[in-house]
Amino acid sequence: MEPIKDHLKENLDLLFVGFNPSIRSGETGHHFANPNNRFWKILHESGLTPRKFDSTEDYKLLELGYGMTNIVPRPTKAAEEITKEEYKEGRKELIKKICAYKPKVVCFVGKGVYQEYSRKKKLPWGIQDELVVPGTIDFVAPSSSGLVRMKIDEIIQIYAEIPKLLTSLK
């Protein structure tokens, strides 16, 4: 199965980074396409988007100044299927993308994504103290997967910090 297309442009306000595409995303060619994934609901209810977008509209986030990519491009059923080598290569590629496109904030959709990227084990939700790429703020948010056991309201509260952060940067 082919990787899905990144949605990137220079000087984004916000870049979302997921683990990797789901099989459903691989089939449709759109980010967060699994109907059990709450990404689009979270974005809307946290104030990041003016309405609830559909996964087929993922490219339209660019109009809001938001981009999308993954640390590993290969679609899988579960993140556990990703190899150490894929994470290592994905980390290098992600750093290159962030350096090239220079987003103001990178939101890691899942603590595990950021752990692979930063090589840190203990980290809080939200803004990280140490940046991997100077000049870009790292923000760690919970995964939007339906498998996450956090309450949806708690997840939305964490994502709701991002619009405040973006406003403070303008």
Automatic annotation (TrEMBL):
Q: Name one GO biological process term.
A: base-excision repair, AP site formation
Q: Uracil-DNA glycosylase-like domain: which residues?
A: 8-151
Give the matching Pfam families.
Answer: UDG (PF03167)
Show the InterPro entries listed in the entry: MUG/TDG, Uracil-DNA_glycosylase-like, Uracil-DNA_glycosylase-like_sf
Keyword terms: DNA damage, DNA repair, Hydrolase
> Does the record's keyword annotation contain DNA repair?
yes
One GO MF term: pyrimidine-specific mismatch base pair DNA N-glycosylase activity
The highest taxon in the source lineage is Bacteria
Q: What is the protein name for this chain?
A: G/U mismatch-specific uracil-DNA glycosylase
Organism, scientific name:
Cytobacillus oceanisediminis
